[in-house]
Amino acid sequence: MIRRLAAAARFSAVVALTYLGLLAATFFIGRVMPIDPVLAIVGDRAPEHVVQRVRAELGLDQPLTRQFGIYVRKALSGDLGTSVLTARPVAEDIRKTFPATLELATCGILIGAGLGVPLGVWAAVRRGGWADQAVRVMALVGYSVPIFWLGLMALLVFYAKLGWVGGPGRIDVAYEFSVPTVSGLLLLDAALAGEWEALGNALSHLVLPAALLGYFSLAYISRMTRSFMLHELAQEYIVAARAKGLSEARIIWRHALRNAMVPLVTVIALSYAGLLEGSVLTETVFAWPGLGLYLTNSLQNADMNAVLGATLVVGTVFIALNLLSDLLYRVLDPRTRRP
User: What is the pLDDT of residue 36?
Assistant: First the structure.
C-alpha cells in the first residue's frame, strides 16, 4: 500500500512539474515575441495614458516573476485571457474550435492506425517482396509530398472535377443551423438529433481531410510497424514457437504483434497528438473551423492571448497522451509493472 502511494505521489509530481514547465515555456514565449499585447489591444495610435492603464490592468507593469505567478493562477483556473480577434474569452473560442479538430483527428488516426498497422505487418512478413516494396513506396510518398499540395489536388479532383465529396468547410450552409450543438462533434450531434441528411452532408465534408490526415499518419505508422515487426520476428521466441508447430498466423498476430504493440503504442499516441495539435495546413486548405485554423488566424492578427492559449492546449494534449501511453505500457507489458 505504501509503495503504491509513493508511486502515485511520484507520478503526480512528474505530471505537475511537466505541466509547470509547459506553463513556463508558453509564458516566456509570449514575453520574447516582438509583439506588444497592449498595442494589439488598443492600437498603435492610442494615447500613452491609455497604453499605461491597459498595461497596468493586464499586470504587465509587474515584475516578471509576479507576472508568471498571475499567469499560472489564471491558466489553472481556465482563464486564458481575451482574444483580440474575436473579443471573446480564449477558453470559450477553444471550446468551440477544438471539437472540430478532435473529430477530424480521431477519424484520421482511425484510418492511419487501422490501415497502417496491418500494412506494416504485411510488409514485414513479406520482407523484400512486392508487397514490402509497395508499402515502403506508399510510406515514402506520404512523407515526401507536402500535405497542403495533396489537399489542393484532392479538392481539385474529388470535389471540383468529380463532385464525389463536399467542399471546404465542415457542413453546407443549408444544414449549418439544423443540428443542435450538444458535444460539438458534428457527426455525433447530427446522429443524436436524427438529422440524417445533415449527417450525410457532414460526412461528405469530412471524408477528404480525414483521409488525407489518415494517409499522412498511415505513412509513419506503417513504417514503424514494419520496423518493430522485423525486430520481433528475428527473436528466439519466434523460432521456438515455429518449432512447437504453431500456425504462422498465430505467431504473427498473437505473439510478434503483441510484443511490437508496446513501442507502437507511443507511435500511435504521438501521431494522434500531432493531428490533435491542429493540423494547421490541412485545416487551412479545407477551411476546417478547428484549432489549427484558429491558431493560424490568431498568428496573422498578432493575437497573442489566443496563440498562447492554443499552444497551451496543444501541450496539454501531448502530456495527456504521453501519460496514457505510459499507462497502456503497464497493460501490454507486465515487465514494466513495479512489484
Answer: 67
DSSP secondary structure of 169-222:
SSS-GGGTTTS--SSS-HHHHHHHHT-HHHHHHHHHHHHHHHHHHHHHHHHHHH
Q: Tell me: the pLDDT tens digits for 110-119?
A: 999 999 999 9
Pick from 62, 102, 293: which is nearest to 189 by CA?
Answer: 102
Question: Model confidence over 253-297: pLDDT tens digits?
Answer: 888 888 888 888 888 988 888 887 657 788 888 888 888 888 888
Phi-psi domain of 78 (left: phi exceeds 0; alpha: psi -120 through 50; beta: other): left
The residue extents of the domains of the chain are 2-76, 96-336
Euclidean distance between CA atoms 59 and 171, whole angstroms:
41
Q: Rounded to two decimals, what is the model's pTM?
A: 0.83
DSSP 253: I
User: What is the number of alpha carbons within 13 Å of residue 212 lying toward its C-beta?
Assistant: 24
CATH H superfamily, domain 96-336: MetI-like (1.10.3720.10)
d(C-alpha 211, C-alpha 219), whole Å: 12
Percent of the chain with pLDDT over 70: 89
Supply the angle between the helices 2-32 and 304-332 in degrees, to the nearest 10. 150
Contacts of 27 (CB under 8 A, 6+ apart): 67, 68, 71, 72, 308
